[in-house]
Amino acid sequence: MKHGIHFISGLPRSGSTLLAALLRQNKRVHAGMSSPVGSLFTALLRQMSQDNETAVFIDGAQRWAILTGAFDSYYHREHPTRVVFDTNRLWCSKLPTLAALFPDAKVSCCVRHVPWILDRIERLIRRNKFEPSKIFNFEPGGTVYSQAEEFCSVVGMIGFS
Questions:
Q1: Is-contact 136 147, C-beta < 8 A?
Q2: Are 33 and 91 in the same domain?
Q3: Is the dihedral of CA 67, 94, 1, 11 positive or negative?
Q4: pLDDT tens digits, one per residue of 45-83
Q5: Looking at 110, 128, 152, which one is the last position of a domain?
Q6: Residue 99 predicted with pLDDT over 90
Q7: Lowest mean pLDDT among 12-26, 94-108, 114-128
Q8: What is the end-to-end Cα distance of the chain in Å, rounded?
Q9: Are 22 and 77 in a shared domain?
């Protein structure tokens, strides 16, 4: 990216949407909700790993070009003078890769006390009591304790972040 890319990451319900909205007030900045670039990025990494038998034909320079190309391709319509902030919770788990690809990039990591996050999510669940949540694979069962355990697991919203 000619004019820079930066990242917004961190814990759920900790202000990343608000941060992006504040940044968007500057017309030279593009900042949105979670983009699909994180999913594309991880899919490309997996396909270029040794899990794929053809990965031996991809060298380091090609990997770098493919991964940075995902960002360039997704954000190509942004005005050439805009700075891009890509938002996704997974960026903190990819810091070494991001640092190699974008050495000048910054990561804004939004945080909040975990009990406050759990409380906020539980309130949202209770507000939508007649609609089982995708967070729990649309299962209507569960208690506040089982839900908190699931959120904080390694693959949960909080544990992964």
A1: yes
A2: yes
A3: positive
A4: 999 988 888 889 999 999 999 999 999 999 998 867 789
A5: 110
A6: yes
A7: 114-128
A8: 26
A9: yes
Strand-pairing partners, residue 8, are: 87, 108
The mean per-residue pLDDT over the stretch 76-95 comes to 88
Residues 120 and 59 occupy one common structural domain: no
Return the pLDDT at 69: 94
Q: How many CB atoms lie within 10 A of CB 59?
A: 9
DSSP string of 69-104, one letter each residue: HHHHHHTTTS-TTPEEEEE-GGGGGGHHHHHHH-TT
| Judgement on whether residues 94 and 68 belong to the same structural domain of the protein | yes
How high does pLDDT run on average in the chain?
87
- pLDDT for the residue numbered 137: 66
Query: Can you give the residue range of the structural domain that contains 78?
Result: 5-110
Give the C-alpha distances (Å, rounded to integers) separating 132 from 46, 117, 127, 156.
32, 19, 11, 17
Compute CA 71 distance to the chain's CA centroid, rounded to the nearest angstrom.
13
Are 81 and 32 in a shared domain?
A: yes
Strand order in the sheet with 29-34: 29-34, 83-87, 5-10, 107-110
